[in-house]
Amino acid sequence: MRCVVFGVTGYIGGRLVPELIQAGHEVRVVARTPAKLAEVPWLEQVEVVRGDVTDGDQVRCAVADQEVVYYLVHSLARRDFADVDRAGAQLVARAAKSAGVRRIVYLGGIVPPHAELSRHLASRAEVGEILRASGVPTVELRAAVIIGSGSASFEMLRYLSERLPAMVTPRWVHNRIQPIAVRDVLYYLVHAAELPAEVNRAFDVGGPDVLTYLTMMREYAVVAGLNHRVVLPVPVLTPWLSAQWVNLVTPVPRALAVPLIESLVHEVVRTEHDIAAYIPDPPEGLTPYRCAVELALTRIRNADVPTRWSDASTEGAPSDPLPTDPDWSGGSLYEDVRQHHTWADPDTVWAVIESIGGENGWYSFPLAWSLRGWIDRITGGVGLRRGRKHPQRLRSGESLDWWRVEHIDRPHLLRLRAEMRLPGLAWLELGVEPAPHGGSRYHQRAIFQPHGLAGHLYWKAISPFHSAVFGGMVRNITSTAERTVADRTSP
Question: How many percent of the chain have pLDDT more than 90?
């Protein structure tokens, strides 16, 4: 079918597009700023049009000649999100009817029965009503918390669980929630395009588990390998105050945290599973909560290293990060990035890089490296005692002091994974490339993914020493290469 997707730079929209392409549909995507899509992997397979859902002319051009409209727009970051979403839904509804669109598919939120809805849930329910009243057959899929790296709800859960080993929580953490994995949401969205024309209604969708928010945090901690989280419930702490706390201890913006937490005041559990009469459950079944968390944790937003962390995820899976994901999503990742131009040739610089460690040392602050090695040995780690097998050559997979050679692309890049005792995961990348006007550009990157609050505190504690350790490494590696060239060319 010919499908047009509104909200393509959002979390769900960016992941839905490759699923539609794989299903054989022709896809047009609508973005206010098409430049945001410059690095998405599926860009060459879709038609991109500039459009804003509040601009009638742009909306009419976007839906022209299309059979299915996917409406995935939510303006939570704005104070007037309800007004903006209402206006956008009305324009899209009218344009879809005029263009002869056969189906509208919309993703909303589960509406608790007999409850005074939060502004967030009320707005989503209103948009669904507008689209269903358009005269175009509409499927509204209603979901609670979507579990996937990059989802605002999941990121809030992730940061709270990882950064707070003990927390004071309001009563709403005991409310029941039926989370759903992002891959199951996408499964329903893709198949909703093919429902019979007479289907014009809302469907609740959810995973197989019903949990409290407190249980979700504790289960997250188990999957992430964190210590048991101590929770002290209190009878007060309003959603607004909770949002201020979330804003303080997580990078999730307050403009998002407030409506999300207001929605958690309700129990969001599906009241029916009628969707199964039209779209059977996935062949492997709906994804359990723990499995969904495991999939979400296999990737974080930095592009290179995390693809090697786990075999549980495949390239292009919904748990993969996208360039369009917000900067605060994907979990914490700390980096120390440095580069330096040297007149030494790339081959000479590479020879210094590949000879690092063992008897050759680490070209930086020997006392600090030795002290860190002894501390690691005392605490049961490998320390610096393993050395290296060959003085000049390294092989992928072999040990190098307290590191493991994870990847070597000779003569360009060496990536080492730390095997010392750390509250997190760490890598060190050393690389070289020819400089445009002669010589070489040496680049170095230390990467750390913290594990719980201890990981964050560890990085903060050692950060003051990075200039001496990593800065010294840059200077000494390049100067060693330059001396080598000078010795080689001197009479």
Answer: 40
